Amino acid sequence: MGSYKKNAFTYATIVAMGGFVFGLDAALISGTVKFITQEFSLTDLELGSVVGAPAMGVLLALVFVGYACNKYGRRTTLMFAAILYLVSAVCSSLAPTYWTLITARFLGGLAFSSISLASMYIGEIAPPKWRGKLVSMTQINIVLGLSAAYFINYLILGLADSDAHWVAALGINQHTWRWMLATEVIFALLWFVLLFFIPRSPAWLLYKGREDEAEKMLLKVTPQNEIAQKIQEMRSSIENSNQDRSMLTQLKEIFSRPMRITMVIAMTLAIAQQATGINAILFYAPTVFEQLGIGTDAAFAQAIYIGLTSVVFTVLGLLLVDRIGRRPMIIWGMLWIVLSLGVCYYGFETANYTITESAISEMSSIPDAERLNPLIDVPFDSDISFKKALNETLGETDAKAYSGLLLQKAANINALLILLGILSFIGAFHFSIGPVMWVLFSEIFPISLRGIAIPFFTLVTSFVSYLVQKFFPWQLATMGISLTLLFYAIVVTIGMVILYFFLKETKNMSIEEVQLALAPKPKRQT
C-alpha cells in the first residue's frame, strides 16, 4: 500500500470512528430504560422523550452543520461534535433529574450530524477507487457501535448482580444505568484526541482560498501527478456551487414537476426507512425481548444478537449493492422486512398469559406478591389485557418494575419464532433500505441541488425517527406489541408499493443518466 493510500485509510478510519460513537450513544440508552423509568417515575411518553431527545437534537443540528463546516472547516466541526458527545455522556450519567437527562441527551443529538459530515470529509480525501469502501466505513462503524453498546450493557448488568466488593465500592449495583451511559466518555474522548491527527479537508482549504495548503494536504492522500487535476475539479465544483440561489429557490426546484419522481422516491425512502420501526427495536431492545417472557437478564443477552446481526448484514449489503443493484435490494428487502414483522406479529398475537399459584410462590422479589392471588389461573389473550390487570392489582409502579419477571412467569409464547422474526427483520433492514437509502440519496439528486436536497430529506427521516422513538413506549402500553409491529408492517408495505412503481435502477449510471431516467415522461400530443 502506497503512503498516500495508507494516509487516506488512516484519516478515514479516524473520522469513521465517529460512527462508532454514534452507534454507542444511540444504543446504550436501551439498557437504561427500566432503571430511569423507576428512578424518575416516568410515564410512557416521558420515557419516549428521553430516548428520542437526540433525534430532536439532530433536527436542529442539521440546519446549522452546513454553515459550520464551511465557516470553520470539516475537522473543527468534527472536533466540536466529539466535544458534544463527551459533554453529553458526562452530563447524562450524572443527571439528577428527568429534564437534565433530556437536555444532556439533546446535546448528544447535536453531534449526530457528524455522520453526514464524516462521509463528506472522507469523500473529499479518499482516492476515487477507494472512495466507496472508505465512505462505507462510517456505516460499518455505526453497527459496530450498536453491538458494543449491547455488550457493554449486558456486562454492566452482570456486574451489578454480582457480590464483588469493588462493584459495590464503585456503586455499579446502585447506579447501574449511570455506569452504562458513562462508558461513552472513554470512546468520545479517544475520538476527540485522534481528530487532532487528521489534516484539514483540501476542499475546504481551497474554498477558503488557501490553495498552497490544499496542495500540500493532497500530497498526503493523492499521487503527485493527479494533484493538478484534483485541484481543478474542486475549483470547478466550488464555482458551480457559488451560484446565487437561495435555499427557498432550491427547495422549490426539488418539489417542481421535473423533479417530481425524484421527490416521490426520496420522500418515500425517508419515511419508510424509519417507519419500519428499526429504532424502536434498536433503542428498546431489552424491553422488546422482555415481551418474549425470557426475563430481564436473558433479554439483555439476546440484544447482543441484534448487534451481531446488524454487523453481518450491513457488511453484506455494502459488498453486494453494486452487484445486485439498488432497486432489487430495496424492493425485495422491504418485502423481507414486511414478512419478518408479520412473523413477529403472528407470534405475539397468538400468545397468552396466565399466572399460576406456583409461579407466585417463586416471585419472592415482588413485595406482597399475594396481591396477585386474584389473577391465579385467569387467562389473558394479549399483553395489553395482562398488563392492565397487573396495573390494577399491583399498581403502575410495581407492575412496570417487575414486568420482566411477571411476563417470564406468565407468558405462553413461541419465543423462538419471534426471536427469529426479530433477527430476520434486523438483517433485512441492514441489508436493504438501511444503507441503500443513503447510496440512492448520493445518486438521484443533481449536483446543483445535492447540498440542500440531502440535508432536507435527512431532516424528514430524522423527524420520523423521533416520532418512532417518542411514541413506542406509548404504543406498547396502549396498542400492544403485536399491533405496533403490524402498524409498522402496513406503513412499509405502502412504501414498497410506491417504490415498486417509481424507483428506477441507478447502478453503474452517471448522474446525468440518472436524471434522464427519473425525468417525467412528456405528455403526448392529441
Oligomeric status of the shown chains?
single chain
Query: Which regions have little confidence, pLDDT < 50, spanning 5+ residues?
Result: none
Helix content: over 70%
Report how far the terminal alpha carbons are from each other. Answer: 63 Å
Our Rg estimate from Cα atoms comes to: 25 Å
Widest sheet, order of strands: 1-2
Q: Outline the biggest β-sheet.
A: 2 strands, antiparallel
Order of helices and strands: HHHHHHHHHHHHHHHHHHHEHHHHEHHHHH
**Could you tell me the strand content as a percent range?**
under 5%
What is the mean pLDDT? Answer: 83
Principal-axes geometry comes out as globular
Backbone structural class: mainly alpha
Number of strands: 2
How many H/I helical runs? Answer: 28
Subcellular location: Membrane
Protein name: MFS transporter, sugar porter (SP) family
Transmembrane segments: 9-29, 49-69, 76-95, 101-122, 134-157, 177-198, 261-286, 298-321, 330-348, 415-440, 447-468, 480-503
InterPro entries: MFS_dom, MFS_sugar_transport-like, MFS_Sugar_Transporter, MFS_trans_sf, Sugar/inositol_transpt, Sugar_transporter_CS
Description:
By secondary structure, the chain is an all-alpha fold. It has 28 helices and two strands. It has a two-stranded antiparallel sheet. Helix 3 packs parallel to helix 5, helix 15 packs parallel to helix 26 and helix 19 runs antiparallel to helix 24. The chain is globular, with a radius of gyration of 25 Å. The model has no long low-confidence stretch (mean pLDDT 83).
